[in-house]
Design brief:
elongated, about 425 residues
Length: about 425
């Protein structure tokens, strides 16, 4: 019975709206643009945050990243009076302590870094040399473009091999076939055994890699480049001793990540007299990024929802004008026995039809906008199912709310007064 009643009112609503096609079309445009803008803006917000979330997830939810940082200028000046070489940061002893004292730690991966000139023939460029172990590529997985990554057999033979990032290989090797080439890093030659795709240098997320890296074995790095990094420039000289620039720590489960990070921080504070390290927890960054994404979507959705509100005001305005135009019709219907609930149902049906049709057209508009934004603004956009459902639901709700007052006003008209209306 309810279904028959609803269908009858919807059919009557369509019929009445088709009597004024242009006016109905103009009225729905507010809803069309509102729904379309909600979908498009949420797609922009989703796309903007998804890349950062993916980067953080690929850092490993069970990883903890320790990084050496240079102390403040005041601390550095005090130490410079006592020594010529500035020493700070994470040490090999720190690596041993973490592995030996914390049972939840499954493995640690040490990392040393140097800035050196990379040379192949006549082509030269500055590169970041990363000395590490094969475990680096297991904790921080990167797509292998060609060849392979560092393996345990390289460690056994202390092989002079390197893995380049894709951008570094493209700039240094140019048209040369990459694999098998001997690249000069500093004063030594290394055979290129693989190329990986780097994810560093973008997205607002600090990653352990950069766009132009050369990965070599840490034991080879220590033997070839030593422990002290000396930088010479015109009229100046600086020397720094940093045993480990980074230390990647893998924990056995997500539940232990943040407690272990706090325990590591407390332990390092006992043995380091100054703030020469920082701890990054990808799991905490991921949680924070998801919360930021949620807030960003709420803000964008609220801004876009204003246009839906404007569309609702337009519907209410038209329906009030319709009540005035059809006053005599309302009087006739009331005189022949129509109840107030039936009058209310008729006008609500018309507003729901207006908002629902506008919402459906707006969905098509919303799907068409994101590809254009991606193409002309070079911004990643992602249309989600929940944004479509949300926008349609809001459009119908706006239609119902906007139609209540005109419908109630129409139902309260005095039949005698309405019949006299010209």
């Amino acid at each position: 019975m309810l279904g028959v009643w609803l269908m009858r009112h919807l059919q009557l609503g369509f019929k009445n709206l088709l009597l004024h096609k242009l006016r109905s079309l103009l009225t729905t445009l507010g809803v069309v643009f509102g729904v379309g803008s909600v979908i498009a803006m949420l797609a922009v917000g989703e796309g903007a945050s998804r890349e950062a979330l993916q980067r953080i997830e690929r850092l490993g939810a069970t990883n903890i990243i320790l990084e050496s940082i240079k102390p403040t200028e005041q601390e550095e000046a005090g130490r410079a009076q006592r020594r010529m070489v500035s020493a700070y940061g994470i040490t090999y002893k720190d690596d041993e302590r973490i592995g030996e004292t914390m049972s939840v730690v499954t493995r640690t991966v040490p990392v040393k870094q140097f800035r050196k000139k990379g040379r192949l023939g006549e082509r030269t460029m500055e590169m970041r040399i990363v000395g590490t172990t094969p475990g680096w590529f297991e904790l921080i997985p990167r797509d292998v473009v060609a060849g392979r990554v560092l393996v345990e057999s390289d460690v056994t033979g202390s092989a002079n091999v390197c893995v380049l990032t894709e951008e570094g290989a493209r700039q240094l090797l140019a048209t040369e076939h990459a694999l098998g080439q001997s690249v000069r890093l500093g004063t030594d030659f290394f055979e290129v055994v693989g190329i990986v795709r780097s994810e560093g240098g973008g997205g607002g997320v600090q990653t352990p890699d950069t766009r132009i890296d050369a990965y070599i074995l840490i034991n080879v790095c220590r033997a070839r480049f030593g422990e002290v990094d000396m930088q010479r420039s015109t009229g100046s000289f600086s020397a720094e001793r940093v045993e480990l620039h980074q230390l990647l720590v893998q924990v056995d489960s997500r539940a232990h990540v943040e407690p272990t990070a706090k325990a590591i921080e407390a332990m390092l504070n006992r043995f380091h007299g100054n703030d020469d390290f920082v701890i990054n927890v990808p799991l905490a960054l991921l949680r924070e990024a998801r919360e930021t994404k949620r807030r960003f979507n709420v803000v964008l959705g609220s801004i876009a929802g204003i246009s839906l509100l404007v569309g609702g005001i337009g519907i209410m305005n038209i329906m009030l004008a319709s009540v005035t135009e059809r006053t005599r019709e309302i009087g006739i219907r009331r005189a022949i026995g129509a109840r107030r609930s039936q009058i209310i149902g008729q006008f609500l049906a018309e507003t729901v039809v207006l908002s629902a049709v506008g919402g459906l057209i707006g969905v098509g508009f919303g799907f068409a906008l994101p590809p254009l934004i991606t193409r002309f603004a070079a911004m990643e956009t992602v249309v989600t199912a929940w944004s479509v459902v949300l926008s349609i639901g809001i459009s119908v709700l706006v239609g119902v709310v906007s139609g209540i007052y005109p419908a109630v006003r129409a139902a309260r008209l005095d039949p005698i007064t309405a019949l006299r209306h010209e």
